[in-house]
Write a structure and sequence with these properties.
The protein is an alpha+beta fold. Among the domains are: 204 residues, glycosyl hydrolase (family 31) (Immunoglobulin-like, Sandwich); 92 residues, Golgi alpha-mannosidase II (Immunoglobulin-like, Sandwich), CATH 2.60.40.1180; 81 residues, Immunoglobulin-like (Sandwich). It has 14 helices and 33 strands. A hairpin with a 2-residue loop joins β3 and β4. About 3% of the residues have low confidence. It binds beta-D-galactopyranose. The site of beta-D-galactopyranose has 9 residues, from loops.
């Protein structure tokens, strides 16, 4: 009897385990992941035994629950029974279904492709090598489906993912077999109806985000990872990075050059030469080039110039920092320097104290954190070991994030916002004030990366370094002024904005235009912070972009419906800045280009004239203009041309430009531009609205600074 009771109890236990959660099995057999709705439209599933160390544990940010809860509920749009997973030999395999028309976006900061269906990727932190194979500066394991859902694989591992390339024997939509010897239409890539991935761990945490459209999916992902960063105002001004060996006097001359040539300048970037030795780094000022760092920093600050310091995290042997860090470094060196394990609190503290004492306390505004991505030869190998017990692979996938969290923390403690550069980020980086850059230099691919950044919760700058011609120079300058960081990185070339005199006026105009648009750009970043909406975004995330054939006009091209054709293809060279401005950069060698205008009326930014609606148009701008279009009802708050953000104050006139004839609204955001007080409610949000051709302003949130003087409205479309 006793045995029978025990048997019954065991049976009940086994039964309740299966019923409660089919996502845990140890047998290696296939299971159907169970999804728990943690927040509206955020669904979690734990497959077997996920590791404790993962991408979100490193980034350490809490989900922005309040903001997610304001979003509309969204059911899971796929048949959950079609999702399968199993763990075998220390690896976890997962499969999701794909439909015929479905497209997949995301999966890292790709440079050549936006559509990911058909790709085979190994998501692996690396410097971009010229191929979209998964190795990138942000190998974010998050895919977004055009069906209105996305899946985030929360693992700090290299992940192999087959995006509609593998074909299973039990496929519900088997590919057509054609005898190659006699048949026609034989395909070298048979149709695949699934997306499969392998995580080299005993289990994995999956987080699914759903939404009415892909934008809502992205917003939920961003909010879940902490919400977008809000840079200080100065971070959105113009940046100049100077040659490596510049001294304080050279920097003074550089700043004077910007004044003399009347070119915007908010940030001066000091490259390796500010260190007494680099690389690896001492993190101590070079006494010859910078005899008085505190005095120099103060002097620059009085000129309205913020300093950003280059570093890589590897320590010069026997430097002060290296000695202190002795017990906390990994088995290998990088650039001959020791590699701190920043997952160890003591190591973080040593570095943070050093940063505080030598840099933050004297007024340094931020860092450029280099070499945290790869290339393979320039990083530790995967066989490296680290004192915390993390392995080389885990460290590689997260080192950039570790550096971002470490520096973000110290600036937060000082209640000062920073904005900097990083060469490696991952999922969970969205709320960190860093922009990704690299050494690659294709202008076109830089724009594709900017588009892809919006699917991955990261920011990217198409930095300008040098150019073969004046035409290339001005085209690159125009693009960078419409990006998260308007920067000239002259560390090797010594170029200045006026290096190509024949196009100087055009460079100056576009840099000042960015300054004029700062209220729009800053508010767009506030939207990133409060609502998770990426500031620079892919066309696919724009309302009205996908349209049915009969709703579009099919003009200006010789195909039947060029618009429909165009949106099905990858659009890799145009993007949205905020809700209203479509940016279509020009590239050297091109006199004209096509622009795909989403459904709804669009207007020329410069003239306010109507240009089209749901169609493909051709534009032929001169060298002096980057094509910009504004959506019907678009409201753009602008200020006069200022050279530095320091000039923006409560006397600055506000001109509200209105485009088209439709009603529209824009949330104009303002705060002190430099502290975290906005997180405690000290900010101002006003709703600018146009209805029946009349503009009005309404308070949405009060209690913070409002840096505008006289307000005027300008209706651009006559
Ligand atoms: C590179 C970096 C460049 C520049 C250079 C200085 O690794 O990508 O932007 O900072 O180092 O040595």
């Amino acid at each position: 009897m006793k045995n029978l009771t025990m048997l019954f109890a065991l049976f009940m236990l086994a039964f309740s385990c299966t019923v409660k959660n089919d996502s845990k099995q140890i047998s290696g057999a296939k299971l159907t992941p169970q999804w728990q709705e943690e927040l509206p439209g955020v669904w979690k599933s734990e497959i077997n035994e996920p590791a404790d160390f993962n991408l979100l544990s490193v980034s350490g940010k809490e989900p922005r629950q309040d903001a997610i809860k304001k979003m509309k509920n969204a059911p899971i749009p796929i048949d959950q029974k079609e999702v399968e997973a199993f763990t075998r030999n220390g690896k976890t395999y997962v499969r999701f279904p794909l439909e015929k028309e479905e497209q997949i976006f995301g999966l890292g900061l790709n440079f050549k492709t936006v559509h990911q269906r058909g790709k085979i990727l190994r998501l692996h932190m690396d410097h971009y090598t010229g191929k979209d194979d998964g190795r990138s500066h942000a190998p974010v394991p998050f895919f977004i489906s055009s069906k209105g859902y996305g899946v985030f694989i929360n693992a700090a591992r290299y992940i192999d993912i087959y995006v509609g390339s593998g074909v299973t024997k039990d496929s519900k939509h088997p590919a057509k077999v054609v005898d190659r010897n006699v048949g026609k239409g034989w395909s070298s890539r048979p149709y695949s109806d699934n997306i499969e991935f392998v995580v080299p761990e005993e289990g994995v945490e999956l987080i699914m985000f759903t939404g009415e459209n892909m934008m809502d999916v992205v917003r939920r992902f961003n909010l879940y990872c902490g919400g977008g960063t809000l840079p200080p105002k100065w971070g959105l001004g113009f940046w100049q990075r100077t040659p490596t060996r510049y001294s304080d006097n050279d920097q003074r001359k550089e700043v004077a050059g910007f004044e003399k040539n009347n070119f915007p300048l908010d940030v001066l970037g000091l490259e390796p030469g500010w260190h007494s030795k680099a690389y690896p780094c001492t993190f101590e000022w070079d006494e010859g080039r910078y005899p008085d760092p505190a005095g120099f920093t103060k002097e620059m600050s009085e000129k309205g110039v913020y300093l950003n310091l280059w570093c890589n995290p590897y320590l010069w042997p026997d430097s002060n920092l290296d000695k202190k860090m002795k017990n906390y470094t990994g088995s290998h060196t990088v650039w001959c320097g020791t590699v701190p394990d920043y997952t160890i609190p003591e190591a973080r503290k040593i570095m943070q104290d050093h940063f505080n004492k030598h840099q933050l306390d004297i007024g340094v505004s931020g860092y450029k954190i280099d070499e945290v991505d790869g290339f393979d030869h320039w990083l530790w190998p995967d066989v490296a070991t680290f004192p915390s017990g993390k392995d080389g692979e885990q460290m590689r996938q997260t080192y950039g994030t570790q550096m971002m969290t470490l520096t973000d923390e110290i600036y937060r403690r000082k209640n000062e916002r920073t904005y900097g550069l990083i060469r490696a980020a991952n999922a969970g980086s969205v709320s960190y004030p860093y922009v990704i850059y690299n050494d690659y230099y294709s202008h076109r691919d830089f724009i594709t990366a900017l588009i892809n950044s919006s699917f991955n919760g990261v920011l990217w700058t198409p930095e300008v370094r040098q150019s073969k011609s004046s035409e290339e120079w001005v085209r690159r300058m125009q693009s960078v002024c419409f990006s998260p960081m308007a920067m000239l990185n002259a560390w090797a070339s010594g170029t200045k904005p006026w290096s190509f005199p024949d196009v100087y006026k055009a460079c100056q105009d576009v840099a000042f235009l960015r300054m004029q648009m700062l209220p729009y750009i800053y508010s767009t970043f506030a939207q990133y912070h409060f609502e998770g909406t990426p500031p620079f975004r892919a066309m696919e995330l724009t309302e009205g972009y996908y349209a049915k054939a009969e709703e579009t006009q099919g003009k200006l091209d010789d195909t039947n419906n060029p618009y429909e054709e165009a949106v099905k293809k990858e659009v890799k060279d145009q993007y949205m800045m905020g809700d209203y401005v479509l940016v279509a950069p020009m590239f050297a060698g091109e006199k004209e280009r096509k622009v795909v205008l989403p459904r709804g009326k669009w207007y020329d930014f410069y003239t306010g004239k109507y240009v089209g609606d749901g169609e493909v148009i051709k534009v032929k701008p001169g060298l002096d203009k980057i094509p910009l279009f504004v959506k019907d009802g678009g409201i753009l708050p602008m200020i006069p041309s200022i050279r530095q953000t320091a000039e923006w104050n409560n006397n600055t006139p506000l001109e509200i430009r209105v485009y088209g004839k439709a009603d529209g609204t824009f949330k104009l955001y303002d705060d002190d531009g430099k502290t975290f007080d906005f997180e405690k409610g000290k900010y101002t949000m006003k709703s600018l609205s146009v209805s029946n051709g009349k503009g009005s302003i309404k308070d949405e949130h009060t209690g913070g600074p409002w840096n505008f003087g006289k307000v005027s409205w300008k209706f651009m479309t006559k």
